[in-house]
Specification:
The chain is built from two helices and four strands; from the N terminus they run ββαββα. The chain has 70 residues and is of the alpha+beta class. The protein has a two-stranded antiparallel sheet.
Amino acid sequence: IKEFDWKSDGTHSYGLIAQELEEQGYSELVSDSGSHKTVNYSAALSLIVGKLQNKIKELEAEIENLKLRA
């Protein structure tokens, strides 16, 4: 997630950069109209939530293993 100012009006905002998503292999989250690229935030949010859920499960399992060793 990046902090940036829009070129069009200087409005300060936060979001994902379409070109960076493409570089990281997430081109399916990017639409290209020819004049500009946009991020599909619904799909990006689903991906992020899924990755967080997996990480939480991993951490919960690690905590349980540590409890068993104690």
